[in-house]
Specification:
344 residues, alpha/beta, Rossmann fold, 2 domains, 6-stranded parallel β-sheet, 4-stranded parallel β-sheet, 14% strand, elongated
Length: 344
């Protein structure tokens, strides 16, 4: 989604954009739906233990490299942009081989393996978060590319979309597109019994939807004020309608900040390089969020922390102001400008 946001910004500035992806990923539906051409290459992620997949990765370096070379020679791009994942590694390396300028985007507060390998070959490295030791030279703090749908999201439209009244505060709970089981269970335990003094929009992911639905039914959840969804294409509207956001702390915290929302964050404890903890602490240091560790999370803890914040409007307003101060809404435009600069 950040790559599509950047593509839109580049297209708006007159560039012609196409994508390189795999035959297995979500790009096969998302990229054509957004109106962009997609070239497929045999690219795979690195399995960090010895297995059959390790051999497939090394094979894909050869096959994916050849595929990428063919695509680059046919497309003749002025700039190759790497989005930070494993799919971007070989095309950016092939850009270096063919002497084409490359730019890479780091979406997290921790430089991933692919971007650490690619950085020496890139003209620019655009950072979404400040990263210690990477403040000068080719490193530029631009912010995350954000979709226009998010930036234009209206709170009142969000309340209408999800059937929310104007008299009770709204809490959005989500563990990402796949869901987070610990957050899902804690939310159901905290707010799934009896009448509520708040409105909950709980996007739990498809994996846990049936289980959470059963729990809520057994507990007699308030159907007027507890809205359970497996997934929604209108997540930006849900975030715009929220008075408080509860969830993990991946790079999506930058979307929370862009909308100026206070947050209660539960970092995923096994995230690479503890980047979710770093993201949450970045928000907390600024006064924009409070943090609950996954180990201490429970229905009781979540319920108390949410109600404590909702019962203190002044605190929520201060957190919202701090969040808005962190938020960068022009990340896509800033990166697009850097792409144009190195491609001229």
């Amino acid at each position: 989604m950040p790559a599509l946001a950047l593509a839109d910004a580049l297209t708006h500035k007159g560039a012609v954009v196409s994508f390189i992806g795999t035959a297995r990923g979500l790009e096969n539906s998302l990229v054509p739906e957004a109106g962009y051409e997609l070239d497929r290459a045999d690219l795979r992620g690195l399995e960090r233990r010895l297995s059959l997949r390790s051999f497939l990765f090394f094979w894909s370096l050869l096959r994916g490299g050849l595929d990428s070379l063919i695509i680059l020679r046919r497309r003749r791009p002025g700039v190759v942009v790497g989005g930070g994942g494993y799919v971007s590694a070989v095309p950016v390396l092939m850009a270096a081989v063919t002497r084409r300028p490359a730019l890479i985007v780091e979406l997290d507060s921790h430089m991933g393996l692919a971007n650490r390998v690619l950085a020496p070959f890139a003209r620019r490295v655009c950072l979404s978060f400040p990263i210690q030791g990477r403040e000068k030279g080719k490193y530029i703090l631009t912010g995350r590319p954000l979709p226009g749908k998010l930036l234009a999201a209206d709170p009142e439209e969000g309340r209408r979309r999800f059937g929310l009244g104007g008299d009770l505060p709204v809490v959005l709970v989500s563990g990402g597109s796949l869901g987070a089981r610990s957050i899902n269970m804690a939310c159901a335990a905290a707010f799934g019994r009896g009448m509520l003094k708040l409105q909950v929009v709980h996007v739990c992911g498809k994996r846990d939807f049936e289980a959470i639905s059963s729990v809520l039914q057994e507990q007699g959840a308030d159907p007027e004020n507890y809205h359970l969804l497996d997934y929604t294409n209108d997540f930006p509207l849900a975030m715009a309608a929220a008075d408080l956001v509860v969830g993990r702390s991946g790079a999506s915290v930058l979307e929370v900040a862009a909308l100026g929302k206070p947050a209660l964050l539960v970092p995923y404890p096994h995230a690479t390089g503890s980047h979710q903890l770093h993201n949450a602490e970045w928000m907390a240091r600024a006064g924009a969020a409070e943090v609950i560790s996954d180990a201490e999370l429970s229905g009781e803890v979540l319920g108390k922390r949410v109600m404590s914040l909702l019962d203190d409007p002044g605190c929520l307003e201060q957190m919202a102001a701090a969040s808005a101060a962190l938020g960068r809404r022009d990340g896509a435009d800033r990166i697009a400008a850097e792409v144009r600069n190195i491609g001229l």
